[in-house]
Write a structure and sequence with these properties.
The protein has 3 domains: 163 residues, Rossmann fold, CATH 3.40.50; 246 residues, tm_1862 like domain (pyruvate-formate lyase- activating enzyme); 62 residues, OB fold (Dihydrolipoamide Acetyltransferase, E2P), CATH 2.40.50.140. 33% of the residues lie in helices and 22% in strands. The protein contains 15 helices and 19 strands. The protein has a 6-stranded parallel β-sheet with strand order 2-1-3-4-5-6, with helices on both faces.
Length: 488
């Protein structure tokens, strides 16, 4: 029995998919790259952008047509708004919250998996294994050949589980099936308390819940001991970690410090990143801890969203441009080598030409190394969905192109300044250019270098940069090729 999962959206969904994959494989399914070979097809959806939701409908329409010639089950989970969830119930066989993942094997038992032979000789009730509701078994004993789905054409069973947000704690106990042998995502919290007016996350993932630090540190130590080279801490607002525990949990700076201390004592060579912090909770304490440990990567992703104070108020961001400016100043002072990434929304409800120009000026001032720029699209449930989306799409597109042009001016200058320098980089795979390997610097700048030695993938090497473009670098292996346990 085969399965296939389509993962949409942010790194949090990608991390979630690793836990989903492990639960499915524990049931006896095997991954397939070919959707048409799968008996179990799923989507980890993202309600943050309408474009992602459109992709979900495209997939399920295709998959439901496959049911005319083969037996399969479809499911959807992930970051899903209530309005989208109601619509998905009409198309998918199973719709559930990510916090209910530990009970997914029971959902499969209840719904059943088709066996063509059993469909001919037995009725549905005789072939469905009873649901064990009270306890999740990491390795459920499911005889796939003896389970049967409601036949195509008969009233379809739809299962939706709704449970408290706190069940995310059970989800964190699920062991992930890491998709890489050298890069990993580690969730440290779930949900959001900020309620930005454009954002759907508080309505899809609920309020902020911090994962116990002991569990986080145990997972990170395990990864480090297995020689993982890149670890990313994930959360909607990572720097508010521990606030929901009212003093019963360490705060984010202390969490980073403990990771740094373990890294220092381990003698291992690795980088730890985090995404995304909120400007409101960003403190010099975090930056100072990062400056003290080599394993804490010198790269900060700090969403600005807009460079205009009135738009920021309308977005309920709870920070001003001057607040943001002070944080950038601290980063440049405490972490002078750090790269800075950001997120920006163009065409937010009511954004005037003057307000957009303030955002362009902010980009010119801060000279980001990368900016993820998105055209505003209202999402059901978010506060701004009640307001008229009055900025025409062509204007949004034009503004996006203007900011992209502003971005590449500064990234090109920064990247050109790296020419003739030798960088420590992590080799991530084969490049699209034949005979080259791809890599990333500590600041997450993409580069490539000429080599066909795939044994270097997942290792640190030194590369001397000889050319630069707006978004990437190219170089050659330095004399000292493989780097282990050395400073950047």
């Amino acid at each position: 029995m085969n399965y296939h999962i389509v993962t949409l959206g942010c790194q949090m969904n990608k991390s979630d998919s690793e836990r989903v994959a492990n639960v499915i494989e524990e049931m006896g399914f095997t991954w397939t790259d070919n959707e048409e070979e799968a008996n179990l097809l799923g989507v980890l959806a993202c309600s943050v952008r309408q474009k992602s939701i459109d992709k979900v409908y495209s997939k399920i329409n295709k998959w439901n047509k496959l049911k005319n010639r083969q037996h399969l089950i479809t499911f959807v989970s992930g970051c899903v708004l209530p309005a989208d969830k109601d619509n998905f119930l009409k198309s998918f066989d199973l719709v559930f919250q990510m916090s209910d993942l530990p009970e997914f094997p029971d959902m499969i038992r209840q719904y059943g998996v088709v066996s063509p032979f059993s469909q001919q000789i037995q009725n549905t009730k005789q072939n469905v294994i009873p649901v064990q509701k009270k306890k999740f078994h990491p390795k459920p004993e499911i005889d796939l050949s003896q389970i049967k789905l409601n036949p195509i054409g008969i009233s379809r069973q739809v299962t939706m589980v709704s449970r408290p947000e706190e069940k995310i704690k059970d989800f964190w106990h699920v062991q992930p099936a890491y998709q890489s042998k050298f890069e990993a995502f580690v969730p440290i919290q779930n949900g959001c308390d900020k309620f930005c007016t454009f954002c759907a996350v508080p309505y899809t993932r609920g309020r902020e819940i911090s994962r116990p630090s002991e569990e986080i540190l145990d997972e990170i130590k395990t990864l480090i001991n297995k020689d993982y080279k890149s670890i990313t801490l994930l959360g909607q607002n990572v720097n508010s970690y521990g606030l929901d525990k009212k003093g019963n949990e360490i705060r984010f700076p202390e969490l980073l410090k403990q990771i740094g201390e373990f890294g220092k004592a381990s003698g291992k060579d690795f980088w730890v990143y985090f995404t995304s912090p909120h400007p409101r909770d960003m403190s010099d304490d975090v930056l100072k801890v990062i400056s003290q440990y080599d394993c804490l990567a010198k790269q900060i992703h700090l969403p600005i969203q807009s460079g205009d104070d009135k738009v920021l108020i309308k977005m309920n961001r709870k920070h001003t441009l001057e607040d943001y400016r002070k944080i950038i100043h601290s980063i440049r002072k405490i972490l002078p080598s750090a790269t800075i990434f950001t997120d920006i929304i163009v065409g937010f409800t009511g954004e005037s030409d003057e307000q957009f120009e303030n955002t362009r000026k902010a980009m010119e001032e801060f000279k980001f190394n990368m900016a993820y720029i998105a055209k505003y699209s209202p999402r059901p449930g978010a506060a701004s969905s009640r307001w008229t989306d009055e900025i025409p799409n062509p204007i949004k597109t034009e503004r996006l192109h203007i900011l992209t042009g502003e971005l590449v001016k500064h990234t090109l200058v920064y990247n050109q300044n790296l020419v003739d320098k030798t960088l420590k980089v992590l080799v991530t795979g084969q490049d699209r250019k034949e005979g080259y390997l791809s890599a990333i610097s500590e600041g997450r700048i993409v580069l490539r270098f000429e080599s066909e030695n795939t044994d270097l993938i997942g290792k640190f090497v030194r590369v001397k940069i000889h050319s630069a473009t707006h978004y990437s670098l190219e170089g050659a292996l330095a004399k000292e090729k493989v780097v282990e346990n050395v400073e950047s």
